[in-house]
Design brief:
The chain is built from 7 helices and 7 strands, in the order αβαβαβαβαβααββ. With about 250 residues, the chain is α/β, with parallel strands linked by helices.
Length: about 250
């Protein structure tokens, strides 16, 4: 198995965690204006969470893949507990469908599409996407005649860069020092779980797929809770990617 990049995220914005109970009803989601609709100020966070707390299966499920570097049992159980407490699991009428790379897919990403193909998917969040994950996402997109009605966010993937850019709305990974030649061991911390919570909220809040254009960086900054991120630059073509972003976290 590949070694994966070190992650140490410090997300300063508060993450409000509560899920509603009692009778559920269909809900209207807010718009996806990057300048105003999605905000993680306390008042807006609570507003979004009230929307999510009224989620029903008719609104769909958000799939979270725990891939390379995120399949550790302790991390998985802790992350799942926080996500479940916040938004509930789909099997119990909540929002989240977790997929563990080892336990659910038998360590074969080729099983991913078949595992999720019959779900009413609202969004897909990939953490540590293994090689060839993009092929599975492409199968999902093909099932919608290439007009996928939801977002796919990928954090710290180990998959092919171009393939990820072609199948995901937002890709995020660490900016590496040019002198750093070797991969470093994954560090899973509370910031990674915070990011997972933020990604769920963001996908639930926007009504459809985010277009890949110059405005996407505004969504990425709000999603990450960061004011400074950079676009990925292809080393061969020197072209900037509109949906692939790097975070510069000092070790």
């Amino acid at each position: 198995m590949k070694k994966v990049r070190i992650i140490s995220l410090i997300l300063s914005a508060a993450v409000v965690l509560f899920a509603g109970c009692g009778k559920k009803k269909n809900v209207k989601l807010i718009l996806n204006d990057p300048d105003s609709a999605i905000s993680f100020e306390p008042g807006q966070s609570e507003k979004i969470d009230r929307v999510i707390s009224n989620w029903t299966n008719e609104n769909g499920t958000i799939v979270i893949l725990f891939g390379y570097g995120f399949e550790d049992d302790d991390f998985y159980e802790h992350s799942l507990k926080r996500v479940e407490d916040a938004y509930g699991l789909a099997e119990n009428g909540g929002l989240i469908t977790p997929v563990h790379f080892n336990k659910d897919l038998n360590s074969h990403i080729a099983n991913f599409y078949n595992y999720i193909k019959d779900l009413n998917i609202r969004g897909i969040i990939l953490f540590g996407a293994p090689e060839n994950t993009a092929r599975e996402i492409a199968k999902v997109q093909k099932s919608f005649d290439e007009k996928t009605p939801f977002n796919v966010f990928s954090f710290f993937p180990q998959d092919d860069v171009l393939a990820q850019e072609g199948t995901c709305n937002i890709i995020v990974e660490n900016k590496r020092d040019e002198t750093q030649l070797e991969e470093m061991t994954q560090v899973m911390d509370e910031g990674s779980v915070d990011l997972m919570i933020r990604a769920v909220r963001y996908i639930a809040a926007v009504p459809g797929p985010l277009p890949v254009n110059a405005e996407l960086v505004k969504h990425a900054m709000k999603l990450l809770g960061m004011t400074k991120i950079s676009k990925y630059i292809d080393s061969e073509t020197s072209l900037h990617s509109d949906n692939h972003f790097l975070i510069d976290v000092k070790k």
